[in-house]
Design goal:
It contains nine helices and four strands; from the N terminus they run ααββαααααββαα. By secondary structure, it is mainly alpha-helical.
Length: 241
């Protein structure tokens, strides 16, 4: 399964947008993961009947053989995914120290900030993002603190302190949500990433800022710079030691 994942994605983990059950959790600030099984070059999927060059979903004739091939491939391969998810859930429920690396958020949000800066720099108008920059720096400092506290707790086998660290790592994403939601889209409340207005299910990062700025709504974009910065500071305060 790992080899198939590497082949299909190149090892890249995407940003959550929408299109599955995880959406409701993301926009309540609850950590989520989305997995799906997709064909690779070594996993044939006979979706085309070569004699008619039509998708099998469009055909009415008997395609028992092709369906049998598809089902056989699916049974052999897709069963890996629920096994993996079951083991993942078991591990998260039973491991002493949660394997959630807050510093990964520092890395990813830095990428999102650079993307936002590039968007601003390519436009004829500008936007002050200094408060967001400051909030990201604060979050990075707090992430270092929680990593040090976790190391101390594990080395000293301090069960009570490990529990404190686990709760902080579990809960900090709650800070990323805004009660007002995104402009014109109150359901989507995560200010770090959300499905884009015109991207389908694909995510837009720092969506309140990015989309408002692209639309030329500079006052709204400035408002969401502050909202997003405040949200990141709330998350930073949750992991504060």
């Amino acid at each position: 399964m790992y080899d198939a994942w590497i082949e299909f994605t190149g090892g890249r983990v995407g940003v959550l947008g929408s299109g599955s059950d995880y959406t409701a959790f993301v926009h309540k600030g609850i950590g989520a993961v989305s997995t799906e099984w997709m064909p690779t070059s070594t996993l044939p999927t006979p979706l085309i009947d070569e004699t008619t060059t039509r998708s099998i979903w469009e055909q009415t004739e008997d395609l028992t053989t092709q369906y049998t091939i598809i089902i056989a491939i699916t049974i052999r391969t897709i069963g890996c995914l629920p096994s993996y998810l079951t083991l993942l859930a078991y591990n998260l429920a039973t491991v002493e120290s949660l394997p959630l690396n807050v510093s990964n958020w520092v890395t990813q949000m830095e990428i999102y900030y650079n993307d936002l800066t590039a968007t601003i720099n390519s436009a004829p108008h500008t936007l002050d993002t200094s408060s967001l920059r400051s909030a990201l720096d604060e979050f990075a400092s707090r992430a270092q603190e929680i990593a040090a506290l976790e190391q101390q707790a594990v080395e000293n086998k301090d069960a009570a302190l490990i529990t404190v660290v686990n709760h902080k790592k579990r809960d900090f994403q709650r800070g990323f949500v805004s009660q007002g939601g995104l402009p014109t889209r109150e359901f989507y409340r995560n200010l770090v990433f959300a499905p884009g207005l015109d991207t389908g299910y694909a995510a837009t990062t720092f969506p309140g800022i990015t989309e408002s700025f692209k639309a030329g709504n500079l006052s709204v974009a400035a408002e969401y710079v502050k909202r997003t910065a405040d949200a990141i500071l709330v998350a930073a305060n949750i992991i504060k030691t």
